[in-house]
Amino acid sequence: MNIIAGGQYGLAFEDNNIVKEQRKFALKSLHEIGFGSAALEDSVYHYAQEIVTRWTKMGNEHVDVTENIIRAIGNVIWHVTFGINLEFDNPIILEFRRLQLALIPLLASPFMMFVELFPILRKIDFLIGSPTKRLMEVSSESHVMLKEAINTTQQSFNPDNEPSCYIEAFLAEQKNREEAGKPIGDAPRFHYKTTLHFSGNFHFEQMLNTLRMCFLQLVNNPEAQRQLQKEIDDVVGDRV
């Protein structure tokens, strides 16, 4: 965490009172901004329709389901996190995922595992290609993207309105604490770095892999497709 975040910021790797407080705040905020609401369902439906339309246009060509699903999930998460609506083909989503995937082997490398036990190894990592430097470079690239999104949200943020995304909820909480005389300073609870690193913790790889596996099962099990279609027809019918 010191290498990629400069301290105990974000929710990914720590388990202490600060993180527990942040997780509780995140769940509360996501609920208040409508996570699971009809409005979010409309957004998911819109992107699902876009995916189906693109696949339909491909006719009998082979379809790689991954990229379009990444774009759809990433756009929804970007909207929930920053309140920003991206065009479906905006390259930000694929680029951010590329950086996130690049971090995984760096974090899981044998050298980094030894660094956890013997931090002094960071002083000699240049002997094997400086893996910690590469880790910092990849983290920095992703942070630039997150900072730009946060800045965009800050510019349009109105504390008099109800928050419409996680970052706005975080900014509102910061303002409330400042007005109540609760210091933010360098403490990680509601510091800018907490906002930055938490916004990068909304990963969509698990959702992507789950959906890909679902498609694989349906392709290999036509009867399951028919059963699923029947359930949709029975429940949804002709509604769109």
From TrEMBL:
GO biological process, one term: xenobiotic metabolic process
Coiled coil: none
UniProt entry tagged with the keyword Ribonucleoprotein: no
Matching InterPro entries: Cyt_P450, Cyt_P450_E_grp-I, Cyt_P450_sf, Cytochrome_P450_fam2
Any one Pfam family match given in the protein's UniProt record, by short name: p450
Source domain of life: Eukaryota
Keywords: Iron, Metal-binding, Monooxygenase, Oxidoreductase
GO molecular function annotations of the record: heme binding; iron ion binding; oxidoreductase activity, acting on paired donors, with incorporation or reduction of molecular oxygen, reduced flavin or flavoprotein as one donor, and incorporation of one atom of oxygen
SUPFAM superfamilies found in the cross-reference section: Cytochrome P450
Family from the record: Belongs to the cytochrome P450 family.
Name recorded for this polypeptide: Cytochrome P450
Organism ancestry: Eukaryota, Metazoa, Ecdysozoa, Nematoda, Chromadorea
